Records
---
Amino acid sequence: MARMNMIEAIRDAMDTAMGVDKRVVVFGEDVGYYGGVFRCTQGLQKKYGKSRVFDTPINESGIIGVAIGMAAYGLRPVAEIQFADYVYPGYDQIVSEAARLRHRSAGDFSAPLVVRMPCGGGIHGGQTHSQSPEALFTHVAGLKTVIPSNPSDAKGMLIAAIEDDDPVIYFEPKRLYNGPFDGHHDQPLTSWRNHPLGEVPDGHHRVALGEAALRSEGDDITLLVYGTLVHVALAAVRELGIAADVLDLRSLIPLDLEAIVRSVKKTGRCVIAHEATLTSGFGAELSALVQEHCFWHLEAPIERVTGWDTPYPHAQEWYYFPGPERLKKAIRHVLDATPAKQS
C-alpha cells in the first residue's frame, strides 16, 4: 500500500497498465512532455517513449476519432480530454462510432478505449472549465460511465476501464485531485493541495465497474452520491449526527441498482445529490429507479440537491456547488416528513 492523492493514483494506474500490456497507449493535449495540465501523465512519456505517450493537436474530435481507430485495430487507447467542458466537438464520435461499433459490426469489432476527463468545479476555473456532463453519456447505449471518489478507486477503476472491451467514459473530479477534501465548499485550496488522501494498493489493483460502495451505514436515510459529493454527504451526516447509508455509486453505467434498492428499502428515505444541473441530471434517473423499485417502502418523498439550471456561474461558484448546508437542509426535510395515514 502507498499513500497517494488522486493524481498520483491515476498516473499509477496508467503506468501499471502500460507496464503489462504494450497495447495501451496514452495521448491527448499536453500529456506527453508536459505531463498533462494536472500532471496525471507526468513521467510516462520518458518511461514508455513518444510512440506510446504523445501529444495531440487541440482537436477533440480528432483525439476521439484516432482513439476509436486504434481500438478497432486492437490497441487499448487512453485518450485525455483536457477538461470535460471540451469534449463536445468529440461527442459525435463517441456516440455515433465508439458506442455503436460492437453492435453495428455484429461483434466483429469493439472499441476498448478510455476517455479520461477532469470534471466539476472547485478550482476557480469558470464556466468553461467546471462542467459536469456525465448525464449526457449515461443516456448513450454502449458506453460505460464511471466517477471515482478516492485514490484507491481512481486507480482500480481506471485499470478496470482500460481492461474493459467496451468504451468507458472516465470522469475525474478536479476538486479531489490533490485531496484531502472535508466536504466544505469554502475550504481554502491551500489547505488540501499536495496532501495524500488515501491508501492505494501497489501493483495491479482492479475495482470492478458496476459495484457501489457503502461509505457510511445507518438506518435513518439513504444518500445516493458520487464523486465529490461523497465527501459532502459524509460531512453533512457527520454534522447532523445521524446514522445514514452514504452510497458511493462509483459507476453510473453499469449501475449497482441492487445496492440502491437494498439501502432504500432498509431506510425508507432517500436524498440524491450531484454537482451537475438539476433538470435531466443523473439524479432524475436515480429518483425514477427508486420510485419504481422502492415505492411501497418510502416513508417520505425523494429529494435532490444539485447545481442550478444555469451555465456554471464563476462569480457564484460556491453558491452553485451543493455544499453540506444545502444537503443538511434536504436531509432534515426528508427526515421530518410524516407518512400519510392510510384510510
---
Amino acid sequence: MEKGFLFKDVYNKQLIESIAHNISDCCKDFDSTSFIASIIPNLKPLSLTERSNLITQELFTYLPKSYSDALEIILNSFRNEVNNTELSGFEGFYYMPFAGYISKFGLQKEDYEQSINALLEITKRFTAENAIRPFIRMYPKETFQHLHKWTTDKNVHVRRLVSEGTRPKLPWASPLKEFQKDPAPIIELLEKLKEDKELYVRRSVANNLNDIAKDHPNLVVEILTQWNKKDNKGTKWIISHAARTLLKQGHPKALELLGYPENVKIDVLNFTVKKLKCKLGDENEFSFEIQSFASKEQNLMIDFVVHYTKANGKTAPKVFKLSKKSIPANSQLSFKKKISFKEISTRKYYPGLHEIEIQINGKRYGKEKFILDK
C-alpha cells in the first residue's frame, strides 16, 4: 500500500473508469463519459461511504430507468465469483456501490426476487451483509426462506452472509431492532451453521451470538451449553468466541461453561499503581499478585477494568483481557501491566480521576486510583 493511502481512496479515478468500461461492454447506450465526469470531480471531500453512495446515485442516473433492465446490465458487467475462503485487499469494494443500488432502488415487491438473487451474486464477489438488511426488515418471511436455503450453499461467502447479514448489531450498519427483541429466527439459522467446515463462517456465527448476548445473555448461555455437548471442534471454537462479552461482564454461567468457576479460593495482594498522577500521552503501570488458598489447581480468567473519566466528568468502565492462567495449589502469580494514554482514533481521553480494578473469574478485587492530567 502506498504511503499516505486513505481507505476512501479505494474509490478513485481508476475504479470509476473500470466500472464505466465494464458497463459499456454490456450496454452500448451507457454514457460512460458523462458518468465518469459526474463522479471524479466530486470525490475528494467525500468519505468512503459517501463516495460509494455517489457512485450508486450516478448509476441510477445513467442506467435505464427500468430497474429490471438496469439490474441485468449490472449483473452482466460482473467478473467471476470468488471461491476462496476469505476476501482480501480492496478489489471487492468495486461491488459496494452496486449493493447500494439494489438496496436503495430494488425494494419494490415486484423486484424482490431479482434483487435478492442479485445480492447473492454480489456476495460471491464482495459482501451483501449491509445491503440485505432492508430486505430482512421489509420481507422477513421471504428473506428468511432464502437464508435457510443458503445455509447449505457451496460458496462459503453465501453461507457467511446468512449469519453476518442477520447480526442484530452489525458494526457500521443500522441495528435489526425487531430481532434484538426476538432473536429466535436468527438462532434457527445459526443452528444450521454451527458445524460449518470453514472458520470464516463459524467466526461470523460467533459474532452474531455475541451480538445477541448483549440483549439476551442467559439465552445465549443456554444455547452455548447445549452446543458444548456436541463433539465438534469447530462448534467448541464458536462457544469460546461467542462468549467473549459474557466473560468480560463476568457472567458466572458463561465462565463456568468455559472452565472458570465463580468461587475460586484466591486473594489479590500488593495491588499498586506506579504513578498517582500521569499526563495525557504518557503510560501508567499497575502490578499485583494473586495468592491461591486452594489445595488443588484452579483455572483463572484474569481481566482488568479501567474506569475512564468521560467528558461529563463521570466515569465509565472498560474491561480488558489480561491473562488466562492455571494457578497451582497454594501458590502465587505476579503481574505487571502498562496502560497507554496516547491519543488513538477509537478512544478519547479526558483529564480527571481514573480507577483500576482487577477482575478474576467475574469477581472484582481492589480498586486503585490515579489522576490523569493534561
---
Amino acid sequence: MEFMGRDVVSIKDFSGEEIEHILDITKKMHPVAEGEKKSNILEGKVLASLFYEPSTRTRLSFESAMLRLGGSTIGFAEPDNTSFSKGETMADTIKMAESYADVIVLRHPNEGAAKLASQFSSKPVINAGDGAGQHPTQTLLDLYTIKSEKGKIKDINVVLVGDLKYGRTVHSLSYVLALFGANLTFVAPNLMQMPQEIINNLKEMGKTPALNESLYETISDADVLYVTRIQKERFPDDEEYLKVAGLYKVDKALLKNAKENLIVMHPLPRVDEIAFEVDSTQHAVYFKQAKNGVMVRMALLGLLLIPDFDGGVI
C-alpha cells in the first residue's frame, strides 16, 4: 500500500484494505491526540487550509492534527478576505498554495472542486467537503467511531436519517458501510431520500438498503442511528426546505424504543434534530465522534507526507 503524495478526493480512492490500514494507524494516534505524548514527525511540513465554506470541526481538527505532529498551518476561513474577492480563480489559488505548503486541505461549495484542484496541484489535495458531493475524512472518522464503539461493522444495522439527498457525509458513509458488510436503512421523506444513483450502486455491491419515512418504525432494530441536519443552505428554494424542516427529532421518548447499546451519531453541527437531553444518555457518541476526527486526520497526514509511515510518532 502506497499513500505517500496521494490525493484524497473520495473514499472510493481507497480499497477496503487501505481503509482498514488507515483505521489501524488512527488507533496509534490516540496518545498524541490526547496530549499524553509529543511528536515532531511532521516538523518542517506545512498544511494549507483553504475553506471557501464555513467549518468548525473539520478545519480545526485538521489544524490540530498538523500541530500535534509538529507541523505548521496556513490558510483562510473567509474567502471574501482573500484574492477570491478580486476575481482570482481557484486554479490560481491552488497553484499559489502548493508553492507555500506540502499538503492542501480544501472545502468548497461546488461539487467536484477537490477533484479539479487536484489536477492543478503537484502536492496532495484532501477534500474537506465539496458541496453535496464527498467528505472522505468525515467518512473515515465515522467508520472509526462505529468500529470502536461496536467492535465490528459487518452485519450491524445502521439507520441513516434526515437529509440524505444533499448530505455529503451519508453519501460517502453509505458506500463504505456497504463495503464492510453493514445493513443499511435510509429514513427520509421522498423529497430528501438518498439519490437513486447511490442506491443503485449499493445494490450492485449486494447491499440493498431498506427505505422508510418513519424513524419510529426503524429505531428498535438499529445498532447505529446516524442523524443528519436538514441543510437549509443546500436547498434550491425556501419552500422546499420548509416542507421537511423539523421533520425528525431524536429525544428520550424515541430512545425508549431503542436497543440499550444503540449509539447515536451526528456529523454536527446540529440544530434541533437531536434534543439536548440525549447528550447525557449512554447512546450519545457524537462529541466523541468529532474528537476522533483529530486522530483520523493525524493518521492520514502522516501517511501522505512520510514514506512508509507505520504510525510511529516519536
